[in-house]
Amino acid sequence: MVTKIPTRVFVILTICLFIVSICGCKNYVGIEWVVDYSAVGKSSPQCRDDCAEGFYNEICALPDWIGRFNRGDANAWEEHFKCPEMGGTDPDWIDNVDLAYFSGHGAGEGTIAGPTGVGRGGGFTFGIDAHDDWVLSAIPSNREPKWGDKKLEWIVLDVCSALAFKSDGDGVLYTICERWANSDVMHGLHYILGFRTLAHDSCNRGKFFAEYLTGTRDGTKYTVREAWRKATEDTEGLSVKGAYLRASSPGCNTYNDHIHDCGSVSKDPDPACQCYCYSSWPCN
Fold this sequence. Notes:
Elements: H1 7-24, E1 27-33, H2 48-60, E2 65-72, E3 99-103, E4 105-106, E5 123-125, E6 135-139, E7 142-143, E8 154-158, H3 176-179, E9 191-195, H4 205-214, H5 224-235, E10 241-248, E11 275-282
């Protein structure tokens, strides 16, 4: 006996299966940027919006990528990068995308909003002292990020000195392990990409990075680490050092990570047994 499915039911089921099929394979990108730091007394950098949005637009042009958020200036909030245990909302924001880019100022000296309290490389800063405050801290006594426990795999901190070594001096108060290279911060995260030194306000770095990732710059889809290095070399000089920090554990190989839709992607590192690999280079 053959049971005939009514046409209307068949159409509804077909539509539902189609929606599941197209939504299930999507990847998400999000950016936040700050140009206007006047409310906290820091100088206002140039092109931070152009840098982040150039990246965002290139990634969103890929068929299997969707832009989840683009938040700038007073709408870029520190709580978006902070874990719930510390009063943040990162599961709804930065840990709700696969790939993220922040473009603005790093941390260091204080301003009219008060001292950052984290030293150079101890975090990064926002343009308003609200939602939850203006400094995202990664230092041992106030470690606010916990990235990767939901979705995030790669994050760019396009700010000065986020990946500085303590031996670099000049206000770096904590080691790279005390700040970023630990399982509190990298909790499933594959990479943090940034700078070991001061960096300049490039308008195009984010766009170049995305082009190297996707193959639209020179025809090659580079790994995440290669694409970031090439983007920094295209936009900085020898006095500036780009850097990345990646996590790895038995059974995963983040060294050869591409972004989704552009090559192989490792499974997430296991925070319980992961190790950390650091690289920096003079840009030329």
